Amino acid sequence: MNDIVSSNISPRRQPSPSTILLDPGMLTRCRHRVHLDITQADRVPQMREDIGVQQRQEAAAAKREAVREMLMAAEPDRWVRINPERSMRGQADETLAACAAGAERIWGAVLPLEPDTGRKGRSEILLRDPDGGYIPVIVVNHKVTDPGRGALISDLFNWAPREDDTRKPRSNVRDQMRVAQLHRMLERHNLASASLRAGAIGLAADCIYVHDLTKILDDYDARFADRIGIARGEIETRVSKISECSSCPWWPDCNEELTAHHDVSLVATGTRTEILRAQGITTVDELAAYEGGKPEEWTGPSFEDTVVMAKAWVAGVPLVRKFPEMTVTRADVEVDVDMESYQDDGAYLWGTLLNIDGVSAYRPFVTWDPLPTTDEARSFAEFWQWLMAERAAAAAAGKTFAAYCYSRKAEERWMFGSVRRFAGYPGIPTEAEMREFVDSPQWVDIYQVVLDQFISPNGKGLKKIAPFAGFQWRDSEASGEASMGWYRLAVGYDGEVDHSQRERLLHYNEDDVIATKVLREWISDRAASEIPLASDL
Fold first, then answer.
1. Would you say 332 and 393 are in contact if contact means Cβ atoms under 8 Å apart?
2. CB-facing half-sphere around the CA of 495: CA atoms within 13 A
3. What are the tens digits of pLDDT across the range 386-430?
4. Where is 378: in which H helix or E strand?
5. Which of 399, 446, 414, 408 is nearest to 349 (CA)?
6. CA 339 – CA 413 distance, rounded (Å)
7. Are 513 and 520 in contact (CB under 8 A)?
């Protein structure tokens, strides 16, 4: 689905404008999904939300409750808590009454619904600004800053914005739209702070990141006007594939419609779709037959490869190779590595597969202490020390060495994150030592190998490509999102520890590293004879 306005597609059913209310999350959502959510609202309750979305929502709710308990326990006399058991109308009345009474800090604020504007919103916290009005502060389960400098922050317990020379802002448009909508709703009741600031308490819950609303409100106003126009049937949309589709409950419907029309967005998503449509290319077939030059505005993946992808889609060929010969780094001693993490809380498992002289051995380095935990430092240090020992042993024996992953960005995020978070713990390497390894030719990304040498209209994830090499996961439900739910059970987040889920996670991780090995060997030995050349299409 896409962020596009279309002039030739009519809304299906349109509710009365007075019943349409948008929460801020809809301002960053696919525009066509906004149309579907509103016009087919009767179907929404029956639709199964993506499991990953569900898990993130549950984790966010747990984070909000943990922050509430921490703040209110520290200074109970400074807080007014809105009763969450009351109706929405009752909560809104209670919020306005607390503001009228000059409450210093309000938890669980709900602002009155606005049928005329179409706004609704709630804020975990309203802080009374010493200069008048209230500052909305939201609590989120992701990072709001990164290491660096220049972020404006405030202490959790006393609102006093200051620049921090150890943090830089981590932009999050969803957060920006939410605090901007809350500010606009406070303005309606003459309760908005004149400072034009808002706040967000992030994953670490160690400060309030301060949003400067002067840099946000214009974008917010434009987005809201667009989305409310769509919701009220004043602006029309069309279906098109974008990255959000993979987790959208409407995707089966949209995919069916796109496939029936051979829509070009099936092989060229997002802004590239619009570039092609501007060229008069609206179907995959038209792109496959295209013989002109690359459009001037084209960015991202190779245009030539995109044309080949269209040809493969039309021919029903799920995978083609770019070159007659396939190449991949091989070594005498090979180690496959796969990491498992939970949300932004940490990496609890580093799985390895050691391959020497045709013999493979799986070894996991794991902590089952619920994340976040300092025991993560112990498991990561053990993994790192083991990996470096195998590397050194290979060198001492005069053998070549290589370690492999699938999409290095994921592994390296937690490699460097662990180095920084656990600096000084026994066995933790320095950042320079980590950089030397990942920048060496001994650290090989098999995803990059696939990206460089294959074209697939159906994606290049490990679970998409490994089956071509003959590999299948033992667990029919295996996926990164599903593993999040297994992890919650494995560590007892929601009750008793389920040890069977620990075994399930280990089997899943073992299959991931075996898949990387099988795929690498297939690329070396058989891919050239089993996969057609792009030039043969």
1. no
2. 5
3. 999 999 999 999 999 999 999 999 999 999 999 999 999 999 999
4. helix 375-396
5. 414
6. 10
7. no
Q: Kindly give, in sequence order, each residue whose CB lies less than 8 Å from that of residue 128, ignoring residues fewer than 6 positions away.
A: 102, 103, 104, 105, 134, 135
Strand blocks (E) in 143-267 = 145-147, 151-154, 162-164, 167-169, 197-201, 208-212
* pTM of the shown model: 0.81
Token couple for 168: 């830089």
Cα separation of 179 and 139, whole Å?
Answer: 11
Joined tokens for residue 13 = 């059913």
- Please write the tens of the pLDDT for every residue from 220-271: 999 999 999 999 999 999 999 998 898 888 999 999 999 999 999 999 988 9
What does the pLDDT look like over 349-364, one tens digit per residue? 999 999 999 999 999 9
Q: Which of 53-62, 458-467, 492-501 has the lowest average pLDDT?
A: 53-62
For 182, the token pair is 């809350």
What DSSP line would sit under 480-496, residue for residue?
HHHHHHHHHHHHTTTSS
pLDDT value at residue 174: 96
How do residues 162-217 score in pLDDT, each as one tens digit? 999 999 999 899 999 999 999 999 999 999 999 999 999 998 899 999 999 999 99
Greatest CA separation for the chain: 78
Instruction: Specify whether the backbone of 372 is left (phi greater than 0), alpha (psi in -120 to 50) or beta.
Output: beta
AA letter at 284: V
Among residues 189, 187, 213, the alpha carbon closest in space to that of 200 is found at 213
- What does the pLDDT look like over 436-447, one tens digit per residue? 999 999 999 999
At 233, list the tokens: 């049937």
> Which residues lie across from 364 on neighbouring strands?
351
Judge whether residue 48 has pLDDT over 70: no
Query: Angle at the Cα of 22 (from 221 to 273), degrees rounded to 5?
Result: 70
Counting beta carbons within 10 angstroms of the beta carbon of residue 432, is it exposed (0 to 12), middle (13 to 18) or buried (19 or more)? exposed
d(Cα 301, Cα 282) in Å, to the nearest integer?
18
Burial of residue 346 (CB within 10 Å: 0-12, 13-18, 19+) is buried
For residue 276, give the nearest of 285, 260, 287, 262 by alpha carbon.
287
How many Cβ atoms are within 10 Å of 498's Cβ, its own excluded? 16
Q: What is the 3-state secondary structure (H, E, C) of 63-108?
A: HHHHHHHHHHHHCHHHEEECCCCCCHHHHHHHHHHHHHCCCCEEEE
H/E segment holding residue 290: none
